[in-house]
């Protein structure tokens, strides 16, 4: 139920991709999902690199290396993050009826800074920003705060590091 913004497909070829699943405790006030699947590329028999932005998993980001186990039905469940990519995941929920009320409008604000984004669904227009480690973190944080102060959106940090906190 996710769509990339913009519509270009930056994922590896289909034969190289697998779906890995996270289990987690749902956040209060958010949709009550307790699992989320993301596309990943196998790098070892039980390790994969995440290819898209997780929406509901705290401490997960695009590019992370994760270890998984495979259940009897063939579902790959993430058991740990092996290596953080350095990419931050920031969740943005557009304010209904506001000037940036769509995922595309939110992404247009951040795209000039090299920030990728994915939209959860039209029914729940949550935007997951993928902030690469070489981005201008101070500028991204300033835009997030300005947009929230202007009533454009609400945001939450889902996966950040020391550099983000210091920016």
Describe the structure.
The structure is a single chain. By secondary structure, this protein is an alpha+beta fold. It has two domains: 72 residues, no CATH class; 79 residues, Malonyl-CoA ACP transacylase, ACP-binding (Alpha-Beta Plaits, 2-Layer Sandwich). 16% of the residues lie in helices and 37% in strands. It has three helices and ten strands. The protein has a five-stranded antiparallel beta sheet with strand order 1-8-9-7-10, with helices on one face. Strands 2-3-4-5-6 form a five-stranded mixed beta barrel. β3 and β4 form a beta hairpin. The termini are far apart. The N terminus is likely disordered.
Task: Give the helices and strands, then pairings.
Blueprint: E1 3-5, E2 17-23, E3 35-44, E4 47-50, E5 65-70, E6 76-83, E7 88-94, H1 103-110, E8 116-119, E9 127-131, H2 137-149, E10 153-159, H3 162-166
Parallel strand pairs: 2-6
Antiparallel strand pairs: 1-8, 2-3, 3-4, 4-5, 5-6, 7-9, 7-10, 8-9
Features:
2 domains
Q: Looking across the biggest beta sheet, what order are the strands in?
A: 1-8-9-7-10
Q: Roughly what is the average pLDDT, rounded to an integer?
A: 88
Whole-Å distance between the termini? 32 Å
Question: Which architecture name of the largest domain does CATH use?
Answer: 2-Layer Sandwich
**The CATH superfamily title of the largest domain:** Malonyl-CoA ACP transacylase, ACP-binding
The assembly state of the depicted protein chains is single chain
Protein name: DUF4265 domain-containing protein
InterPro entries: DUF4265
Organism: Microtetraspora glauca
């Amino acid at each position: 139920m996710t769509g990339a913004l913009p519509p270009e497909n930056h994922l590896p070829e289909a034969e190289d991709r697998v779906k890995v699943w996270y289990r987690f405790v749902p956040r209060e006030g958010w949709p009550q999902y307790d699992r989320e699947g993301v596309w990943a590329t196998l790098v070892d028999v039980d390790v994969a690199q995440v290819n898209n932005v997780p929406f509901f998993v705290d401490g997960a980001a695009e590019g992370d290396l994760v270890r998984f186990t495979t259940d009897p039905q063939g579902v790959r469940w993430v058991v740990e993050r092996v290596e953080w990519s350095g990419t931050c995941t920031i969740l943005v929920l557009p304010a209904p009826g506001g000037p940036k009320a769509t995922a595309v409008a939110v992404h247009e604000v951040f795209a000039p800074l090299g920030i990728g984004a994915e939209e959860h669904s039209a029914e729940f227009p949550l935007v997951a920003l993928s902030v690469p480690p070489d981005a201008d973190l101070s500028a991204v944080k300033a835009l997030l705060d300005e947009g929230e102060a202007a009533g454009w959106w609400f945001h939450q940090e889902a996966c950040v590091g020391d550099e983000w906190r210091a920016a």
